[in-house]
């Protein structure tokens, strides 16, 4: 996703009407790549975002609040020192290049009026934000590269391609364009204002509007294309916003001429860019946060599976427990027949538990027969204790595995950062996970549940139905939010959300309403793709939480079952 010359130019054209003569009130740095200047101009507050993020580098006004670190980062502190109270006197870029200069007028330590400049280089991985004095001597930058260091002179990236702005007529364009390649690749390779990715969208949109074949075109088609781009640049430079639009296009976004557009919003490009990239960042943050959380939880689950495997091995060793008891009892009953000082490797006796059938008992020939009896009973008692202890450990391990699998299910069905934050709060307390996962933009606060806001809500035949998104919500929904006369639904022996059907006075339930609620319970469970799924339901007064149970775990009685097909 590239922030190209046309977008850069249009953003600057809009910003000139907003931020020129604006005063810098505050400076924030929410993360290592972004700077936000809080501006005040003619009674209006605005926030200008400068981002050197490799994936989302850009400049625009922003309407979204971002959380800031408790301790300001070094570059932020330096900008506060040099720019708070300063007045913006100009914003510009060279040609259609993506290096933006913001010029400030402010007072130095000696109370002399000076000029300072803030440069934003929008160049993917090489993106940077650089503060210089009026002579372009670098004071500091948000990133340090070999050619960008304090006390060195800031130099613009040299232009090696041709700009649309410098082309005076179609003949010059045609001479530069001279190529047998398709239009999009040729424009990208020849002109500095275009960049792979975004440029394909802006070129293909132009070809679509002008009805030109990308690979089969005439000189007349090229002239139409030349005039299109020259007009687009003119409209952008003059901020003639009712002549061009910006919109999503083929998994990207593009700016294009639209003569029929009557939208005269002077900040529509800024607004679009702000919304587009904020949504993109939210999706990235959500995905990254969920994957990291899932990795921690799955590592915990892997350890539990390994623990369960070891427990099962110990239980397998207890399978012969009763045979040692039998050997001990039979040998004790036949001690009078054997000389205690005899050295035997085995002995054959009658098994009075099985109709006196003969049974051969192996013996340890290094010890006497009496010692063998003691050895058999000792083995039996040891395995008996092992069976009792390890059996309890197995039950606890299975419960823990089921609980973690319910968390995995909640993660798979999480829809936003607040859902993930609630899940993290839960696992950080129940699984003792370290709090290293949470990013600055996500505050780990226990949320006060609001039914209308946090739960999934549905209206079924005039009844309000609520569905929890995770174990914390399930507990709150069932045990605190629901009243005793409401109905509770859950898939039978399958991980899923709690579903609450709210019942008001004098309301009668019909089977169709119950069935639709059961369908919701099935939909928001691990059985979502199954058929003929059993869903239990009962009144909330019959649902209880066992003492010490994990979040989301309840027991219930007086229930009925609906099979969802």
Key terms for this structure?
21 strands; 13 helices; ibrinogen binding protein from staphylococcus aureus fold; 39% helix; alpha+beta; six-stranded antiparallel β-sheet; 4 domains; 565 residues
Descriptive report:
This protein is an alpha+beta fold and 565 residues long. It folds into 4 domains: 5-158, ibrinogen binding protein from staphylococcus aureus fold (Roll), CATH 2.30.310; 164-266; 312-447; 451-564, no CATH class. The protein has helices at residues 5-19, 74-83, 170-177, 183-190, 198-210, 219-237, 268-317, 321-333, 369-412, 417-430, 451-454, 471-481, 511-523; strands at 23-28, 34-41, 44-51, 58-61, 87-93, 99-107, 113-121, 128-133, 138-141, 244-249, 252-257, 346-351, 357-362, 456-460, 463-467, 487-491, 499-501, 533-539, 543-544, 555-556, 560-564. The radius of gyration is 37 Å and the shape is elongated.
């Amino acid at each position: 996703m590239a922030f190209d010359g046309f977008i850069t130019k249009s953003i600057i054209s809009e910003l000139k009407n907003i931020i020129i003569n604006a005063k810098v009130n505050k400076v924030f740095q929410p993360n290592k790549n972004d700077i936000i200047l809080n501006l005040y101009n003619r009674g209006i507050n605005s926030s200008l975002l400068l981002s050197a993020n490799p994936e989302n580098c850009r400049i625009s006004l922003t309407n979204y609040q971002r959380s800031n670190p408790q301790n300001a980062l070094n570059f932020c502190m330096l900008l506060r020192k040099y720019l708070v109270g300063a007045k913006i006197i100009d914003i510009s870029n060279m040609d259609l290049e993506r290096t933006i200069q913001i010029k400030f007028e402010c007072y130095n330590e000696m109370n002399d009026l000076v000029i300072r400049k803030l440069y934003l280089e929008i160049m993917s991985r090489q993106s940077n934000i650089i503060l210089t004095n009026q002579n372009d001597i670098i004071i500091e930058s948000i990133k340090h590269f070999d050619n960008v260091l304090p006390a060195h002179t800031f130099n613009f990236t040299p232009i090696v391609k041709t700009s649309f702005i410098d082309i005076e007529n179609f003949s010059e364009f045609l001479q530069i364009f001279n190529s047998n390649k398709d239009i999009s690749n040729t424009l990208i390779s020849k002109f500095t204002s275009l960049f792979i990715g975004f440029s394909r969208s802006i070129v293909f949109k132009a070809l679509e509007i002008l009805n030109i074949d990308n690979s089969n075109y005439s000189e007349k088609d090229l002239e139409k294309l030349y005039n299109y781009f020259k007009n687009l640049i003119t409209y952008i430079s003059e901020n003639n916003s009712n002549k061009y639009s910006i919109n999503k296009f083929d998994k990207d976004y593009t700016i294009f001429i639209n003569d029929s557009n009557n939208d005269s919003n002077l900040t529509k490009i800024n607004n679009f860019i702000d919304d587009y990239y904020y949504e993109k960042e939210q999706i990235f943050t959500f995905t990254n946060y969920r994957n990291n959380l899932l990795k921690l939880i799955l590592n915990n689950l892997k350890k539990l599976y390994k623990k369960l495997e070891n427990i099962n091995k110990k239980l397998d060793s207890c399978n012969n427990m009763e045979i040692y008891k039998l050997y001990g009892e039979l040998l004790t009953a036949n001690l009078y027949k054997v000389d205690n000082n005899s050295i035997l490797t085995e002995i054959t006796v009658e098994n009075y538990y099985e109709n006196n059938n003969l049974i051969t008992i192996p013996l340890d020939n290094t010890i006497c027969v009496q010692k063998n009896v003691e050895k058999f009973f000792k083995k039996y008692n040891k395995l008996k204790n092992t069976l009792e202890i390890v059996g309890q450990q197995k039950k606890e391990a299975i419960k823990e595995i089921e609980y973690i699998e319910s968390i995995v299910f909640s993660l798979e069905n999480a829809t936003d950062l607040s859902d993930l934050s609630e899940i993290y709060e839960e696992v950080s307390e129940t699984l003792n996970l370290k709090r290293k996962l949470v990013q600055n933009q996500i505050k780990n606060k226990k949320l006060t549940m609001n039914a209308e806001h946090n739960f999934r809500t549905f209206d079924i035949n005039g009844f309000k139905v609520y569905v929890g998104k995770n174990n914390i919500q399930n507990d709150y929904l069932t045990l605190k939010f629901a009243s005793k006369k409401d109905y509770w639904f859950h898939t039978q022996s399958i991980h899923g959300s709690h579903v609450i059907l709210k019942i008001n006075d004098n309301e009668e339930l019909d089977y169709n309403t119950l069935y639709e609620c059961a369908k919701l319970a099935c939909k928001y469970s691990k059985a979502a793709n199954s058929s003929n799924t059993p869903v239990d339901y009962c009144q909330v007064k019959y649902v209880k939480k066992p003492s010490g149970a994990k979040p989301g775990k309840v027991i219930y009685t007086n229930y009925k079952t609906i099979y969802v097909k």
